[in-house]
Design brief:
468 residues; mainly alpha; two-stranded antiparallel ribbon; 19 helices; 1% strand
């Protein structure tokens, strides 16, 4: 199978699972936000934002570096996997225990007990074998596990959460979701004949963790960019502002997670092709063009329909989120496109360049948040996020270029841009307040115009092929 088809197949499996699971998670979050109100939802959003850092520690960037290592050793990976899993579980248990003690002593209620419950999720996250499946380029079980996990999480929330502001329900739902995902993927590996035991073979595990450390730092700094605005908003504003901002960021988070799935699908293919191979650069350029073609209409459509998205998603109580969504929506193409050099540099083992790029972006983010949020509040946080994405994207693409992976020709962006402009004219022309109708009209116009320009090829018996 060609690398491009391999990426498409794995992203289709992983991405479809991600879409369905994110829709389930989206429904759960909307229900939580509506039931608890902006103030209590702000408490949940703050705790989730902090817990994301610990989730990254529990994973220790194995979802990225582990994929590369498995892709390199597909025929004999059991010993490597056992050592990585055993070490990661012990490490996560220690970190979780210490973190819970610190949170319990230093945070006030209700944030204290809510975050304590969220931190328990570190253990099932460490037990997740998603990285093994992705390294084997077998993404289907990963997509299914996401659907099963989010469905369970949604069920817990729907059955247990009431208007009495039971803040313990969302973190319990997360722990249940992560646990069932980890269990399902382990069962699938065993059914396929892989011996998945645990060991503490440091001679095998430590080189991988050492290689993963720069990526972990990258991810932590990237997470700082992602949610430091929530933390600073909580410092300079109240939890209601955090709730408004978190609601606006939900759609951004949904799309960005798809971008991470695409990058993860791209990583093993680039690893197999090898540095400087004939197929590496064409795949890199095609990935950039495809992401642009998918993300530009999402941003334009989201900008035009922001009011309706917030109103129908969260209700009148979150009207303050609409303007913030219109600003944040422009981070989508920037953050998605930089997943391509991210995957390419990891495939080449140049995590040091990624760390440098994210460090510059994180410093810019902190400075801008300190300067803008006290004065402009949520708008300042959104503006800081936009500027930070520009900085991160610039350095990542620049460092990729130093490795011979130059940016794709802008000519490949012409057809998606024209189709997006046609979509932007069609949506207001429908003259309807129905969000669904506007989305359908915009999507149909974009696809038809892009196809008419030759940007989509239809072949009998095959899925449409994006030709940009």
């Amino acid at each position: 199978m060609s690398p491009r088809k391999s990426v498409s197949r794995n992203f289709l499996a992983l991405g479809s699972g991600e879409v369905i699971s994110r829709l389930l998670a989206f429904a759960a979050i909307i229900y939580v936000a509506r039931i608890l109100g902006a103030d209590n939802y702000g408490v949940i959003a703050f705790a989730v934002g902090i817990n994301l850092y610990f989730s990254r520690i529990a994973d220790f960037a194995i979802e990225w570096v582990g994929v590369r290592e498995i892709a390199r050793n597909q025929q004999s990976f059991e010993k490597l996997a056992a050592a990585i899993m055993g070490t990661r579980l012990i490490f996560s248990f220690i970190i979780a225990t210490v973190s819970i003690l610190l949170v319990w002593f230093f945070l006030p209620d209700p944030e204290r007990y809510v975050l304590t419950l969220y931190l328990v999720s570190m253990i099932p996250i460490a037990a997740n074998t998603k990285w093994i499946h992705m390294g084997l380029e077998d993404a289907k079980p990963v997509g299914l596990s996401r659907i099963i996990g989010e469905a369970l999480g949604l069920a817990v929330i729907l059955f247990l959460l009431t208007p009495a502001a039971e803040l313990w329900v969302p973190p319990v739902a997360l722990v249940a979701s992560e646990s069932i995902m980890a269990a399902y993927l382990i069962i699938i590996l065993r059914q396929r004949g892989y011996r998945l035991n645990l060991s503490l073979d440091m001679a095998v595990a430590l080189p991988v963790f050492k290689s993963a450390l720069p990526v972990l730092i990258n991810l932590m700094l990237g997470l700082l960019i992602y949610n430091s605005d929530l933390i600073f908003l909580r410092m300079f504003r109240d939890s209601q502002h955090v709730g408004y901002y978190a609601a606006a960021y939900m759609l951004i988070s949904f799309i960005n997670n798809l971008g991470l799935s695409y990058g993860m699908s791209l990583l093993p293919a680039l690893t197999r092709l090898g540095t400087g191979s004939d197929g590496e650069k064409p795949l890199y350029h095609t990935a950039l063009a495809h992401i642009y073609a998918a993300c530009l209409p999402l941003s334009v459509g989201g900008y035009l329909l922001a009011d309706a998205i917030i109103l129908q998603g969260f209700g009148d109580g979150y009207s303050g989120s609409a303007l913030i969504l219109q600003v944040l929506i422009w981070t989508i193409p920037m953050s998605m496109i930089r997943n391509v050099p991210w995957a390419a540099l990891i495939a080449r083992g140049r995590q040091d360049l990624l760390m440098r790029a994210i460090l510059y972006a994180a410093l810019a983010n902190i400075i801008l948040n300190i300067l803008l949020i006290p004065i402009y509040g949520m708008l300042g946080a959104a503006a800081s996020t936009i500027a930070t994405e520009i900085v991160a994207g610039y350095f990542m693409h620049s460092y990729a270029a130093t490795q011979g992976l130059h940016f794709v020709s802008l000519k490949r962006f012409i057809r998606p841009t024209i189709a997006t402009l046609a979509m932007a004219l069609a949506i207001p022309a429908t003259n309807t307040h129905s969000l669904i109708i506007n989305i359908v009209v915009g999507s149909v116009v974009y696809i038809l115009i892009l196809a008419a320009l030759g940007g989509i090829r239809f072949k009998k018996g095959q899925l449409p092929d994006l030709n940009v």
